[in-house]
Write a structure and sequence with these properties.
This is Rhodanese. By secondary structure, the protein is of the alpha/beta class. The protein has helices at 2-11, 22-27, 66-76, 87-93, and strands spanning 14-17, 33-35, 54-58, 80-83. It is built from four helices and four strands, in the order αβαββαβα. A four-stranded parallel sheet has the order 2-1-3-4. β1 (14-17), α2 and β2 form a beta-alpha-beta unit. The longest helix has 11 residues, at 66-76.
Amino acid sequence: MENQIEYYENKLKYEIDSWDLSQAFNKEHIKGAINFPHRTMNEETTKNLDKQFIYICYCDGIGCNGSTKGALNIAKLGFKTKELIGGLSWWKRDGHETSKEKNKETLCGC
């Protein structure tokens, strides 16, 4: 079981915050995420990213499509990617921690 957990933690090593609001990122983001706006993703800016990992793109929430644009851009550059549907908003509703707050009660039973 421990090997399985370690496998998935390493496989999903990086999460990319792909919306363009650095002030919002500085205020709150998923722990371990890097601020990487989708408009800045290109061969030069991604040259130091490891293509062995799956990159999870997320944005503010349902009304934002930055995660979709980020996932598309990074996939076009040859990276494995997934999109965190619901973004930061639903991450928090599901009770997960952010850089700002500890794990709170789950607000969604999904």
